[in-house]
Amino acid sequence: MTGRTATRPATGRWLLTAVALAGFLTTLDNTVVTVALPSIQRDLGASLAALEWVATGYLLTFAGLMPAGGRLADVWGHRTTLLTGLMLFTAASFAAGLAGTVGPLVAARLVQGAGAALVLPATLAVLAVLDERRRSTGVAVWMASGAAALALGPVVGGYLSQHAHWSWVFLVNVPLGAAVVALAAVAVPASRPVRRALDVPGVLASAVFLASGTFALIHGGEHGYGSPEVVAALALCAGGGAAFAVAERRAADPMVDLRLFAVRAFAGGVAAQVLWGLGVNGVFFYTAIFLQGVLGFTPTGSGLAFVPLALLVVLVTPLAPLLERRVGAGRTVAAGLTLVAGGMAVAATLEAGDGWGRLLPAVCAIGIGSALTMPLGSAVLGAVPASRAGVAGGVFSVSREVSGLFGIAAVGAVVLAAPSFAAGYATGLLAAAGLVLAGALIALRTLK
Asked: Which InterPro entries would you find in this protein's record (predicted)?
């Protein structure tokens, strides 16, 4: 592999710890605030529209600015971009925790997302300069931390809002963020910035395309895709996408080199990641409602249902690189995705009155399978030059975030079209399982 820019090798457990914690913190804020929204509404007198912005403002800037964050990681250097993003995220978390009205809280959430958009692709760029074995281990740890954060977000948010105050959902990031900044400053090696123009038209067009598309997906399901604001967002999304394609074709040094998608492993890995995100994230969004409304779980019990999944992801992830070295990334990822699809199919058979005995097999299959998909990120990064690692990391990360939003919208459409929520949820699970199986076939064909 050519184009490496690290000034010294990035090794050691402290580096992996810094990368994992940075990924965990920024991913946790995708879901941690959801359970705290009723408390925020009560304390701040927020309207439902304002609460939507509290919940989704983070996702808008996170997804919308992530390709730009990847480009900046290449232009500024990986460590500089990572530290800048972490400090921005931590400062915005402090501001969100101190907010006394909705306006400053929403503004802080937007800035949080911007900081996270710098952090996530920079962490992958840091790992991309490792040799193949250590990169595989590092990316597996990074992906496991993100999967655990998504599963634990509702649990952490519910506990803090119930036993402390909703502000601690944000304030807890401050000491943790400061610790990760200090650790990353020591453990992450400096890299020489790549002499490359920023591609401002590409950055702006991609931000408009992703942010408006994210807005349309989030609000379309609730307000209807024919509502004026959603129609305007979809039109803006189409215009931004067209402008981005034109900008990248004309740029002497494009932000996202579309030729990367001609690389079999890169295109296949991203496609498998998108299909996994469409299925898993779409189902996760409706699972808490199903557990409480159909199976009769308490709010605490429904949160605890995700804990075995998170634990299995953490425990099985160290085995994924070992299996990858024995049978290859393609077979390992395909096996993991097949297990995830099988767990979804089992969950689709759950009925009112079923308890932990019926639920746990499905949860365990999804957790183990998700852990075995961890070589996916390493395979994608290993397919491109390290000088493009930031952009590749940004594309891979944004594919995960945006595919999750598409999954929520798609499964939501299935649920709403069914005669009952339980029937719609079961049908949505089977549809999601089909998407994940398609990802398994793509991984098997494109990854070594």
From this structure: MFS, MFS_dom, MFS_trans_sf
Query: Of the ranges 39-48, 82-91, 345-354, 383-392, which is most confident?
Result: 82-91
Q: What is the DSSP letter of 6?
A: B
Here the tokens at position 360 are 């746990």
**Euclidean distance between CA atoms 177 and 172, whole angstroms:** 9
The pLDDT confidence band at residue 222, using thresholds 50, 70 and 90, is low
Q: Give the Cα separation of 49 and 223 in Å (integer).
A: 11
Question: How many residues are given for the chain?
Answer: 448
Instruction: Using alpha carbons, select from 365, 328, 325 the residue that is nearest to residue 346.
Output: 365
Q: What is the DSSP string of 130-175?
A: S-HHHHHHHHHHHHHHHHHHHHHHHHHHHHHHHHS-TTHHHHTHHH
pLDDT in the model for residue 433: 92
Side chain identity, residue 150: L
Non-local (6+) Cβ contacts of 125 within 8 A are 70, 73, 74, 78, 81, 191, 389, 390, 393
Quote the CA–CA distance of 108 and 90 in Å, as a whole number. Answer: 10
Q: What is the largest CA-CA distance in the chain?
A: 62
8 secondary structure, DSSP code: S
Percent share of the chain, pLDDT over 90:
23
Which residue do the tokens 């990858």 mark?
324
Q: How many CB atoms lie within 10 A of CB 298?
A: 10
Alpha-carbon separation of residue 376 from 22, 255, 387, 439 (angstroms): 19, 23, 20, 11
Question: Residues 114-133: pLDDT tens digits?
Answer: 999 999 888 888 887 777 77
- Amino acid of residue 162: Q
Q: How far apart are CA 54 and CA 51, in angstroms?
A: 5
d(CA 66, CA 82): 12
| CA dist., res. 372 & res. 333, Å (int) | 6
Least Cα distance to 158 among 39, 292, 280 occurs for 39
